[in-house]
From TrEMBL:
<feature type="domain" description="Peptidase S8/S53">
    <location>
        <begin position="89"/>
        <end position="391"/>
    </location>
</feature>
<dbReference type="InterPro" id="IPR023834">
    <property type="entry name" value="T7SS_pept_S8A_mycosin"/>
</dbReference>
<dbReference type="InterPro" id="IPR015500">
    <property type="entry name" value="Peptidase_S8_subtilisin-rel"/>
</dbReference>
<feature type="region of interest" description="Disordered">
    <location>
        <begin position="38"/>
        <end position="73"/>
    </location>
</feature>
<dbReference type="InterPro" id="IPR050131">
    <property type="entry name" value="Peptidase_S8_subtilisin-like"/>
</dbReference>
<keyword id="KW-0720">Serine protease</keyword>
<feature type="region of interest" description="Disordered">
    <location>
        <begin position="406"/>
        <end position="432"/>
    </location>
</feature>
<feature type="signal peptide">
    <location>
        <begin position="1"/>
        <end position="26"/>
    </location>
</feature>
<dbReference type="InterPro" id="IPR023827">
    <property type="entry name" value="Peptidase_S8_Asp-AS"/>
</dbReference>
<dbReference type="GO" id="GO:0005886">
    <property type="term" value="C:plasma membrane"/>
</dbReference>
<keyword id="KW-0645">Protease</keyword>
<keyword id="KW-1003">Cell membrane</keyword>
<feature type="active site" description="Charge relay system">
    <location>
        <position position="129"/>
    </location>
</feature>
<feature type="active site" description="Charge relay system">
    <location>
        <position position="344"/>
    </location>
</feature>
<dbReference type="InterPro" id="IPR036852">
    <property type="entry name" value="Peptidase_S8/S53_dom_sf"/>
</dbReference>
<dbReference type="Pfam" id="PF00082">
    <property type="entry name" value="Peptidase_S8"/>
</dbReference>
<feature type="active site" description="Charge relay system">
    <location>
        <position position="98"/>
    </location>
</feature>
Length: 467
């Protein structure tokens, strides 16, 4: 339906690799410009092609765990217990555009938003990815469990837009019997899903998906959709920055010879929807020590960062008697556990914070919410850098701090130098008084000695007279 210019998108941690049928092209040096006329029409979701789940592609299994009273490290580092004193996200509808979200007792009131992959309603999740994302955003609190979503009183709107376990019907006929599907979903269906979420009343949208390549990405409709959501529908749109295992290449966006240069002039790898950063909040990943994750893709679009390694979330297979309701990994067909890690899972932490802020400050526009989150982040030494943006998200500060009217541009601060004052040579000390005193003392001492010595002849004469 969309022809050769459709670019597949992927949940950033899913098996699906990303490629473009247009091939690689010239490096991108300019920010994209929105074409409002490219906005996709509204309507009920449906896959643009007949799709299938191959027989050799069973849905993902998970590794249960993360239950019990211990608060996960990522959650503890964000001090959510303090943030919840000000907001829990009540009244917010957070759209998860992903691989679908399974119904779960800790996601009450989930709203089906539709399915662009198959004939479902958005509440099927063959990949586990979308359920992990939704759990990080809005899993409710229960007694005896340390894990909770960032905004436990928010509601989830689920739209299935991609899956690495589905493909266009017949696409695998020329492959071997053991071939894995390449997955399903494009930037065009992503654009439709964004409009769908905005029209259904979402206050926050999370997209843990990327399309990436060197060269131009034909995503004008996606740019128009995020503009429509953010500006016309007042929706905070949050997206992942991308992982370098699927997004091959990187962006050398800091020039050591000119660190304050416009980072857009250094872009070699284009990432969408992150590159539409005037209307979306792209999120990078940090580790438990607050350092950029090795897999996070840098770019001039990155706004903030959040924890993205070895996380805990909801188990989509919670109804399995062996499940504890939460999970710490996805298990592939070879039985290998893949920890819940990636910018896919850093993004929902920030989407959850956006829900907290929207609930506390309902008068703020979507773009002002983004500015507040960026302005209150823990900034790196440079003020901004292409790995963590304006820094690690701080939910408490985002809910309580006063923010400036504007932010500095997304580029590292120029190195500063100061002319240190040259110390003046102190004047030679005036020792006149000391010298006079010493000389006087010396003269008196000499006179005393001379007087003493002069007394010997006198003593001798006086002594002789006495004899």
């Amino acid at each position: 339906m969309f022809g050769r210019r459709a670019i597949r998108v992927a949940a950033v941690v899913a098996v699906l690799g990303l490629s473009a049928s247009t091939g690689a092209g010239a490096a991108i040096a300019d920010k994209p410009v929105v074409n409002p006329g490219a906005l996709p029409s509204g309507g009920n979701p449906a896959p643009p092609d007949a799709t299938e789940q191959p027989a050799n592609s069973p849905c993902a299994s998970t590794s249960t765990g993360g239950d019990g009273p211990t608060v996960p490290t990522a959650q503890r580092s964000l001090e959510l217990d303090k943030a919840w004193q000000f907001s829990r996200g009540a009244g917010q509808l957070v759209a998860v555009i992903d691989t679908g979200v399974m119904r779960h007792p800790r996601l009450p009131g989930i709203i089906p938003g539709g399915d662009y992959v198959s004939a479902g309603d958005g509440t099927d999740d063959c990949d586990a990815h979308g359920t992990f994302v939704a759990g990080i955003i809005a899993a409710t609190q229960i007694a005896g469990q340390g894990f909770s979503g960032v905004a436990p009183q928010a509601q989830i709107l689920s739209i299935r837009q991609t899956s690495s376990y589905f493909q266009k019907k017949g696409a695998g006929r020329d492959k071997g019997p053991d071939a894995m599907p390449e997955g399903y979903g494009t930037t065009h269906t992503l654009a439709q899903a964004v409009r769908r979420a905005a029209d259904m009343g979402a206050t926050v949208i999370n997209m843990s998906e990327v399309a990436c390549q060197a060269g131009a990405i034909p995503d004008d409709d996606l740019g128009a959709a995020v503009h429509y959501a953010a500006v016309e529908k007042n929706v905070v749109v949050v997206t992942a920055a991308g992982n370098n295992d699927k997004c091959k290449g990187t962006n050398p966006v800091i020039d050591p010879l000119d660190p304050s240069a416009d980072p857009w002039t250094k872009v070699d790898l284009n990432v969408s929807p992150a590159r539409w950063d005037d209307y979306v909040l792209p999120v990078g990943s940090i580790d438990d020590n607050g350092q950029p994750s090795k897999f996070t893709v840098p770019g001039p679009w990155v706004g903030v960062a959040a924890p993205g390694e070895n996380l805990t979330s909801l188990d989509p297979h919670w109804d399995d008697p062996r499940s504890k309701g939460t999970a710490v990994a996805k298990v592939d067909q070879q039985g290998k556990a893949e920890p819940i890690s990636g910018t896919s899972f850093a993004s929902p932490y920030v989407a959850g914070v956006a829900a907290l802020v929207r609930a506390r400050y309902p008068e703020l526009s979507a773009l002002d919410v983004i500015k507040r989150i960026e302005a209150t982040a823990h900034a790196p030494a440079e003020g901004w850098n292409p790995y963590v943006g304006y820094g690690a998200v701080d939910p408490v500060a985002a809910l309580t701090a006063q923010v400036p009217n504007s932010l500095p541009p997304k580029r590292p601060s120029a190195a500063k130098s100061w002319q240190l004052p040259v110390p003046t040579t102190p004047p030679a000390p005036d020792h006149t008084s000391r010298n006079v005193a010493l000389i006087g003392t010396g003269v008196i001492g000499v006179l005393a000695v001379l007087g003493y010595l002069a007394s010997f002849p006198l003593r001798r004469r006086f002594g002789d007279r006495g004899e």
